[in-house]
Fold each of these.
Amino acid sequence: MGVLVELDRVSKQYGGVRALDQVSFTVEAGEWIAIMGPSGSGKTTLINILGGLDSPSSGRVLVDGRDIGPLSEKDLTRYRAEKVGFVFQQFHLIPYLTAVENVMLAQYFHSMTDEKEARESLARVGLADRAEHLPSQLSGGEQQRVTVARALINHPALILADEPTGNLDEANEELVVNLFRELHGEGHTILLVTHDSGIARLADRRIELAHGRLSQVSVLST
Amino acid sequence: MFFRIVGESFSRNPLRKWLAAVALVLGMAITTAALTVALDVGDRLAREFRAFGANLVVSPTADTLPLEIGGVDYRPVEEGSYLPEADLGKLKTIFWRHNIIGFSPFLEVPAILERDSSGPAIRTTLTGTWVNHSVAIPDGTIFQTGVLRTHPWWKVEGAWFDDSKQDCVVGAGLAARTGLKPGDTVTLRFARAGLAPLVQPGQTPSEERHVSMHVTGILSTGGTEEQVVMAPLAVVQALTGRTGEFRRLMVSALTRPEDEFSRRDPSTMSKAEYDRWFCAPYISSIALQIRQVLPGADVQVIRQVAEGEGRILTRITALMWLVCIAALLAAGLVVGATAATSVLERHSEIGLMKALGAPMGTVSALFLAEQLVLAFVGGGLGYVAGEGLAYLMGQAVFGVPATGRLILLPVILLLAAAVVLAGSLIPLGRVARLDPAPVLRGE
Ligand SMILES: Nc1ncnc2c1ncn2[C@@H]1O[C@H](COP(=O)(O)OP(=O)(O)OP(=O)(O)O)[C@@H](O)[C@H]1O
Ligand SMILES: [Mg+2]
């Protein structure tokens, strides 16, 4: 498989804080990468830059061969809709929309809604019977599975998950982790931030950040 | 999806939406009322100001100056010229016929009043006019007019005479001098050659005519009419042998306030300017149009009244516009404030949408659609409430309810939309600048 993502000496400066410092690595298509590191080490910053939510202060970020650094606000928006599926620690579902509507929202911003496809996506994460529920009527694990369904709906090149199990209990954590394993098995490219080395062990590779620097890139493939 | 989100926003934030809606309804209601009144006020006030009297006076071109002392016209009847009553219907055929709201012909003759055969004779003027007369218009319709229209402030104690009867009213001043009261009978003598004591040699008393009339009321006008006897025009015409003729015509016309343009001399205008002038209800153009249908007539503008009216009209209209602007501004501010709160509250939602790749156009459209729904609901209700308010205002201030104008509805809706959009500009800017990354970090 070819290289999907390439970071070349990427730095991010927030005022006096250097959140990322000369970070370089590549991600192959279909790879599952676990990003680890202590709090404040720049994991979220890295995910945001990869997801087009933030721009690097210096360095290049190539996704599918295209440098997303110099993209305009409008092009970044398009990039997010087409190339990236986000899964957040806090789920970030729209509280007044049902599960299936939350999935359809991503379709709507991408192109047009397709309820059938949205339901299939929910079925894919095991929530076929929860489609009409509001987020408040779903458990944390179920909510997180809805966000996974939402992340998948537009067939993104890259799935970016920032501590997706951080707010879940063990049982739900396992459900969600299994989901990522399945996605990985289907060939999705995943970058997943986690504090849990158990989860990190499931990934193909592990990237460790410390003070914004890449401290370790380890291949964990057994 | 679009309507789902917009709809949800309304069901979730009823209180704030209501607040914004109420502000809009109030603002638009006041605007509607003020606009209705401003549009209506021209006509309405012009009608009100008619109480100050007719604003045009028509007299024969070749007439001599009236020899009037203390309300008594000492001019011999033979002198001067007269105008034909039969032409009067044509006044309602001119371009601005609908602005002619009334006219009253007058025929004044010197006469001698006798209370009864034994009482003292008093020199006075006998004035013939219409109280409420049916005039046949050339287009086949009938126009009711007379002093009730042109001089609505004239007060009669008792009753006006009937235009078709041989009755009269006596001016209050004259009545005070003679002790006449409603129910009395008076005789008025008229000498063809002027006043009886001045009978010319060669004229016999047999040429003297007289008429006996019933006094139906006492007339108070605040003017010289209080010294005369006023009777139906037909009676005076018959007495003087001036059948179908009159000497002076008072016309009440609704006019546009005078401006720079209307004060220009029409003969110096270009063709286009002349057409514009002619087709505007300026008092001068109406005067010209009257002159055109009444040959031999001279039309004078009672200028002072017309100009005073114009100024007050302009001021009231300006005031109404000011009220409009203030109401719109207030509504816009409230809408802007609620929209700003709304954006602040939905911060995370907007951030999420942006993170999911929602184009700025879509996010703005969602926000603006919501605001426009508000505008149309607020504008629509405001229009209804405003027309009601205008009705009451008209009733209270002018005694006549202002008439609603449906044409205002689209205007009001557009204004509401404009106000809401203007009020939403700053919040919308905030939406545009909102950075999703901090939102997703939970900030
Ligand atoms: N918008 C910002 N402005 C200023 N500083 C920022 C901003 N975003 C992040 N930082 C700083 O950059 C550094 C890296 O932050 P980041 O959120 O990437 O850390 P993290 O590894 O995700 O931490 P955690 O495990 O707590 O989520 C931190 O010191 C943080 O305070
Ligand atoms: Mg983080």
Note: The mean pLDDT of chain B is 82.
Amino acid sequence: MYLKIIKRSLYNLRDSYLIYILSSSFAVAVLTIFSTLINDPTLRSVHYWNQTFQSFMYFMIFIFGFFTFIYMTYVGGFFIQQQKNEFRTYKKLGMSRWIIAVIGFLKTFIVQIIAWLLGMLVAIILQKFVGMMLVYLMHVKLNFGFFLDPMVIWRMLKLGIYSTFLLSLINGVRSYWIVRRQKDSHKLHLNLFFRSIFGIIGLLMFIGGILASLQVFQSVSDTQNIDLALWRVLWIVPLYFIGTYLVIMGFVPLCLYLFDHIKLFSYHGINLVSYKYLRKRLLRNTTIIWFITEMSALALAILVFCYAGYQVVYQNFSGAYPFEVSAISDPAKKIKAEFAKEKTDVTHEYRSKIKRTVSYTFDSSSNQYEPKLISLMSYSDYHALPKRIQNKNPHIGPDDFLELKNDYQSLTPGYRSTKHAVQVKGTKSIKNRSVGSFFPYGYMMFSGYLFVVPDNYYHNVQSESTETYYGWDIKHSDKLSNKFLKKLNQKNKNPYVITVHIGSTLNKSYLYEKDDQKQNHYRPNEYYQNGYVRQADAKHIIDQTSGFFLFLVSIFSIALLIALGSLLTLKVLLRDDNEWHQLKTLKKIGMTERELKQIVRRETGLLFGLPIVFALVQSSLSVGILNLSVNQSAFKPFTVIGSAFIVLYGLTGWLTYILSWRGVKQRI
Amino acid sequence: MQIIVENIAKDYGKKRNAVHAIKDVSLEVSAGEFVGIMGPSGAGKTSLLDLISSNERPDHGRILIDGIDLTKQHDRTLAKYRRNKMGFIYQSFELLDSLNVKENIILPLVLNHASKNLIEQRFQHLNQLLNISELADRSIDDLSLGQRQLIAAARALINSPEIEPTGSLDSNSATILLNYMQLINQKENTTIMMATHDAFTASYCSRVVFIKDGAIFSEIVNSGQREDFFEQVINMQRTIGGGSYFNVPENN
Ligand SMILES: Nc1ncnc2c1ncn2[C@@H]1O[C@H](COP(=O)(O)OP(=O)(O)O)[C@@H](O)[C@H]1O
Ligand SMILES: [Mg+2]
């Protein structure tokens, strides 16, 4: 008989269970696939897999598994809640609480095992496909073979059984607890007055959070004091978290209450019913709305962080390799000869001269002027370079100075400060200048600072060492063979070292060059010159990294949307008896379908609208922090990612609304 | 308003274990009649009223109200129809517990976007007849069964409906209401249909139709004397048998 009871109630809630099983098995499938990918022989032959991606993958599996478990626990609670009345009836009929707990346990067990096995089955079917996608995204030219490690399958199976057992146990306990009272008190747990007080406090906290974060941005751009900012953020985050919860718990219901009591609004069509109905639904669903808010905020932040992380890698790459091949004059001749020999399709050749000398530059770590190597390029030479290079630095005119220094220093305080003049040996010191970080032939081709200076200034400088840089844009690949490169490397990889001889004054300091002795450490006043750099050496890293990021981001976004969508859909579908009764009554006394639809629409709108609004505000805070630490504006990607998220989220909401309305229509 | 029911039938449930709730019922109610519907539990009283009030659609047959075939109307038209032309008192009252008493009563008017003046005016009018103003701000949860019935009736009447299909009125405290219904039935020519188990309640009607197993069993007409009619109803109940006629509230 118990089996019959279980079968019946599973059947009664089949729509909701179906949604749950599908979303859970998706999560299980992703987990299984990730676990098999980690030790996949194909991927292990990819250089970077073993080094970095693998540990990243472990981390992702952990995060994913953790959230999956939270999700399952959470949703399990809905189902038990939904069957409350049924369980109470059993108890009235004389069933013991233990038996009810066993029923709750078995039901969860059945659903959970189905979801898990289904997920693993999907994983086995899709493993090759997902692997192929990953390999494709990473631009790795490998055939992805079908590979399933029996150990992994066994481990996933064990994990499935453990987690099923645990979740069933949790739900068994829940069932046991839920029948202890015969009726829920209809009174709300907290009266409106206290709720409103909390709600207003929450609103103040939330607004306070916004103001505080705006102030942080302000103060950081003034003083560039990151430590202090991060410290303050620790104070701001709880303001948002708690504030949001209190607003949803108290302030929004207060607004609905006020609307409801202003007859101008409430005595108007369905408002009379819907404000009250919405308020009830809201009070019941406070936690879930909050949960979804914070999850969405987190998701948006993670997406933007991934994007920005990728941007950093990419910028680093283009900062190192603005040309397909760059070189200094000595290897340049050999490379050009090789291009001609191999019939390489060179689309452009660029060339710039530089002068090198000694300068007194202010060092903010030692807080004093120190003699350093300085390289100078004339405005005309700089101006002749492709726009894509100039655009990455601040714009300058023919009479302006531009200081280029390495991007990794951008986190040090005073990176952009031009308070201290630069004294160049034998000529005027440079006071006003813009600061950029994009070196024309790639930062790996330069040591120390590079200054772009007006032409007449350039001519006045006495060079102690000159060099000509070459850069080639090439269609397709540079066709440089391994044999040729090997020969080139023997002599020209690091052709020479420039040493600054430190004299008692600037004028007594000077440069001298010597051939690279292949020594292992350089002293601080020694600078070495690279012979050449090729994009081809690093391109696959970028391809692999971006492919890998893209893969993770897309899987995560899909998973997140499925989680959010199914959570809300379930929450909307699973109305309790009282709520069904109200809708039925409304229909009976002559509410049209359109009006009922409007109520469902408002409800879905509120359930979906609230989280996204709060999530957006919160995630823009994290994007703000990102701006500070990456030193580049993440607001554009944020807008793009944010609006993509809103669109997808909106689609989920719309789907929920359709499903919800269908559910309502069927039942009333 | 005149109601003509022609050979209607209604099944509930899927083919194999379908319940034939109404099997071939025909009935004519002329404008201004006050018709009681009686029969044992499960006979099909509620189903019949649900069909006439267009909450359900019949599987066969037609229902004409003032010559308009309800079975051919769009759902939206029917909803407006229910809201404006009919008033209902359901067995389980169907009051919304999230609204207070007054809001429950005026709900049909508010849904119609009636002006605030009209709403107040109608409410005061009902108040004079049913004396409900001191309940106005109470919550539905705090009312007794008799009070709930009164409120359900007030909601049914607020739109001054032309027909009034009524679920069973089983409470003795409903005498005011019954008197009032008789009054509007006579003064305003409202057609009333009412399902009940209670012979005393039924004795207010001008005609009582008895249903058994989803079909009309017989009917008796009130010739004018309420006591005589009451006796007749009791006798007919005995004849039908097969069910409880005690004053038990039904679960709908
Ligand atoms: N929505 C429904 N689904 C299935 N069966 C129903 C439904 N409504 C009524 N019935 C069945 O139809 C028959 C008549 O019910 P009802 O009209 O409620 O009787 P009464 O009101 O006279 O007690 C009963 O057997 C009942 O079980
Ligand atoms: Mg009934």
Note: The helical segments of chain B are 45-52, 75-85, 101-111, 116-130, 145-157, 175-187, 199-202, 226-240.
Amino acid sequence: MNTQNDQFRVENLYLSFSTRRGTVQAVEDVTFTMNRGQTMVLVGESGCGKTSLGRAILRLLPRNVQDYRGKVFLNSQDIMKLSREKFRREIRWKKIAMVPQAAMNSLNPVIKVSEQVIEPLIKRGTGRERRKAMEKAREVFQLVGVPQDFLERYPFELSGGMRQRVILAMALITNPDLVILDEPTSALDLLTQANIMNVLKRIKQERGFTFILITHDIATSSELADLAGIMYAGQLVEFSRAYNLFREPFHPYSRKLMASVPSLQEKKELEYLPGQPPSLLEPPQTCRFLDRCPDSFERCEQEPPVIEVKEGHQVKCWLYK
Amino acid sequence: MENEQLLEVKKLQTYFTLRKWGFLRVGEVKAVDGVDFDLRRGEAVSVVGESGCGKSTLAKTILALEQPTGGQVYFNGKAIDITDKEHLEWYRSQVGYVQQDPYGALPPFMTVRRILEEPMVINGIKDHKERERRIYQVLEDLKMTPVKEFINKFPHMLSGGQQQRGVIARSKILEPSLLVADEPVSMLDPSVRVEILELLRKLQLDYNLGVIYITHDLSTVRYFSERIFVMYGGKLIEKGEVEDILANPSHPYTRALLEAISDPDPENVNTFKKVPPGEPPSLASPPPGCRFHPRCPDFIEGKCEKEVPPEYELGGEHKVSCWLYEKEG
Ligand SMILES: Nc1ncnc2c1ncn2[C@@H]1O[C@H](COP(=O)(O)OP(=O)(O)OP(=O)(O)O)[C@@H](O)[C@H]1O
Ligand SMILES: Nc1ncnc2c1ncn2[C@@H]1O[C@H](COP(=O)(O)OP(=O)(O)OP(=O)(O)O)[C@@H](O)[C@H]1O
Ligand SMILES: [Mg+2]
Ligand SMILES: [Mg+2]
């Protein structure tokens, strides 16, 4: 059994935004637990709240936050209780890092790669600190498979795949306990994508990093996943070992989602979901999936509870009550 | 007599001249470099390849939106003549184009009705009733129903999938016999993707449309087309029926592509993928010989870096441009 100390746990996390048209409920009552060294993939349709969940964990919040609460345990400490200053100094980028969506385009093209990579490490920039930081930078470059002389280059000289590795190196340089990767390969070519997945897999095995991988590419996510979370309209509707998701999903939405993934190996009939997810603006108090669900019945007019169908396998659906 | 081939593309070549200060020639980009293929009436083919390999340029050249620097495109047996304005207008009314990037494709200030009406007005369909009939028909075909609800909407009121269907509707409104769809689903959610591809497939079958489907997503092609063309560095390096290529990929590049694709399988966690080193070639200074040779695991020294491989027939429709097949050819 793993001790509490080795776990990352999110409990009843909420995040909503206020807009002129009303409240956008982007993350609603999300709960899950993962162990050190595990990778969880977070999948779901565009706009379902994946990035918002990542940002909520890292407290990277926009101005128009309306409601933000819940518990986030890292090494048995509820980091939601920390003051803003303390969180910034001790947690963000140090213990939890994030590779934001489309980040490879956020490197400043005219500042040397090395300067940008060591940035999270140096506070004052004294000579000795710099030298140590550069040493660390060389080490992470090796880890992600970027030639060390690239440190002396400028981002515009690098290909998309190399820039994405540099971004990854920046997230790893502080040796964080948890790294959130938001769509790290979706902007890349097929072969480059496969390359980055190989890199992630290798550093996961060698260094035991804990990852949350946000993606809508289910097939590729299977390359890395130990755990899988399925999000629908702001809620985590299923959370389990990845094996269950790929082989035997429980929630009707998860099943439909899996049935829509094309496969090269087998010639299966593809399915798709008719209709659209509900708006996150003042969402209905029924099951969010009700309108599109093939298995709905009367009870689904009420919001379903989260049901633990097996140990570590939770499903938010009345079918399993 | 109608020709069985809808489209014939022969030695097609599109080079872009790179200039300095607007006039000084400093080089060229060989975006399409010697492409040959036929497309039968009512047949769907997929063109797959990595970003920048020339797929969109090939599409635009076929559509006569880009002028070829060499080779020729024949439509219904007739050579397309870019200099003959009348002929060109006729040709453009015969081919539909679904361009890459649906979000920028629809003019934001026009309603769906106007977007669909405009090409008909331009092409001289004067009968208002006929125009209205076609609009209703195409929107029904694309399941944008009830039509009355959609017809007065502006693009920003449509979801991504609906916008994409709007783009397809527009490309179909003149009832073309050829449709070129450039990455029609890459911007969409996976669950919507399948729906749009199935709609396209249905249109193709119902109307006996020839379709060229351009994509970098190999995993969808089996659901959509009869044949696959694999493009690398401005050339089609392997062609064949879908099942042949998937079962028996012959070019080392095609093999690498297929190997890179993941199937949704939990066992994937335990294995690494074989990925060829390096990056796709620059089309401004492509490597000599076979363009894949610097990354190729089966590189034959003294051969592959010297001469461009010819196309070898592997039986049926299966053809490959690779020196490995020299003896068998
Ligand atoms: N600052 C904000 N103010 C208001 N609404 C917001 C804000 N940020 C995000 N949203 C909305 O919250 C919802 C969830 O957004 P989020 O970016 O988390 O989705 P996502 O699952 O990451 O989508 P994608 O796959 O497209 O990246 C969306 O409807 C989005 O429009
Ligand atoms: N008008 C132009 N002038 C100069 N070069 C061009 C022009 N249009 C395209 N190119 C170049 O030609 C090459 C092929 O581009 P093309 O857009 O056809 O690629 P693609 O396969 O469609 O890529 P993607 O998958 O990213 O859409 C690229 O190197 C591109 O930079
Ligand atoms: Mg996102
Ligand atoms: Mg293109």
Note: The pocket of magnesium ion (ligand 4) is lined by residues B 55-56, 100, 182 (CB under 6 Å).
Amino acid sequence: MSAVGDALLMAQRNLRRIPRNPDLLVGVTFQPVMFVVLFTYVFGGAIKTPGFDYIDFFLPGIVIQMISFTGYATALGISDDLRKGLIDRFRSLPMSRSAVLAGRTLSDVGMNVIALATMLICGFVVGFGFNSTPGKIAAGVGLVLLFGYAMSWVYCFVGLIASSPESASAMITVVIFPLSFVSSAYVPTDSMPKVLRAIANANPITTIVDALRSLWVGTPAGTDIAFAVLWCVGIIAVFSVLATAKYRSTVAR
Amino acid sequence: MAAIEAEGLRKEYGDVIALDGVDLRAEEGSVLGVLGPNGAGKTTTVRILTTLLRPDGGSARVHGLDVVRDAARLRGEIGLTGQNAAVDEALTGQENLILFGRLYGLRRGAAKERAGELLERFALSAAASRLVGTYSGGMRRRLDLAAALVARPPVLFLDEPTTGLDPRSRISLWETIEARVAAGTTVLLTTQYLDEAERLADRIVVIDHGKVIAEGTGAELKDRVGGDRLEIELGDLGQVGAASAALAELAIAPTTLHDGILRVAVAPADGTLVQALRRLDAAGVAVDDLSLHRPTLDDVFLTLTGHSAQDAAADAEEDA
Ligand SMILES: Nc1ncnc2c1ncn2[C@@H]1O[C@H](COP(=O)(O)OP(=O)(O)O)[C@@H](O)[C@H]1O
Ligand SMILES: [Mg+2]
């Protein structure tokens, strides 16, 4: 069978578990809702976002941050498949060698669509409004999904190198979590102490959030959009190669 | 023709030598048992033969295909049941088998039909649409075995298929494996239990520390251990001499006394226990307890290596 067919079978396998596993469903629906509502009402008044409604400034940030976490389940899932011997079984089958990871990243796109729709609806309810053209709004949606796809490959790699789901979880908490906060997602980087500001400005998440803001609410874009796309493509190129190589040589633990 | 042939397989993990030159051979349609304690190198051997791991040295062919060079083609010819039941707990039994069938290249309809057949054969029809997460250990193992058989592979690898199962599930799994063999499939199975290897395998290779230390049929291996063993607890230790004399005709080696228990090596035969009891009774020896022991993996190990299987497993853990 073709590589595409095998990948679709694997994606279907992953998507099937969503309605069956309340944790996954909460992750892509309730959690984004909670973040949008809490952040808007708890911090909305305290953070100054010159020239913008806080919610307009904030929603692109929360969207990117939430999307940067969707793949968490993928990392844990792959790590669990390794531990249970499923990866061994898949690797012993006459299937395409890229299908397991391609299937994961494809089903993550599905998860991201659900999460994004949830956040936009919730955003509208609390007062978010696009200030842009339909073409740019659509480009923003594309950027969000591209970024989500790139993060999926990062999570695939994490799932493959972690010795257990617990350690995958720890790696994510230590590396990806701080990275998503030390960015322009919630506050303008100008307001940060010097060292943090330097990190935040170099952080691809800042670039991508700024690009999304400019596409959706019309902040000045500069070179952000081109760089944002470049970052995503770069992450995909590097991590798909790393993860695929690791998958081929990995042994169950 | 040999369905499985391996020569001088070597594998190292850092300082640990997992395989130190393993040779194997299984004729088509036969069952080869790979017997060894924890850490002996059984799983490593299976991983190499099923293309999951590249050997550091040596070569192997399965079904005429080289496990390294022809790996991609070989995967269509083998079924693997790993040490854990590798099935997806978030899918139903039927969904699992359909998924594996389709990954083996079956069309949707054919995969569904095949899944139905296997569920029926493995007594899982009633649980077909239940999530595997709710299955018992025995049911998971059966589903795992069914998954390995989806594509009717000519060569089947089973890595410790019954470890962790209760005795009843164990016997029912043995029967299933026997049925496969009757159907002409070549099977390589690993186990830590001599009785399992003896029941299922035509030939057994015993491995320890990554080396083959013995090879033969179950009966041949047991003969090397020196047959069965009578253990007698005497009411009066003063009668040791009389008891030994009474059993002299049955014994195939000098009797030993250890911790108050008299041990007599005997040839495996029916009625040994009754005969022994009659002779002791006739000689007027008072017996508190009398039992007959078949050789275990541990006895085989002790005889072949001078150390017990438990020690070998402990060594392997230390090495790791
Ligand atoms: N991935 C690995 N990394 C390091 N050592 C390993 C790995 N897999 C197996 N070993 C070591 O190789 C030896 C053989 O292991 P294995 O083949 O799993 O034995 P068995 O299946 O007979 O219990 C053991 O000492 C084990 O600790
Ligand atoms: Mg093992």
Note: Chain B touches chain A through 30 residues (CB under 8 Å).
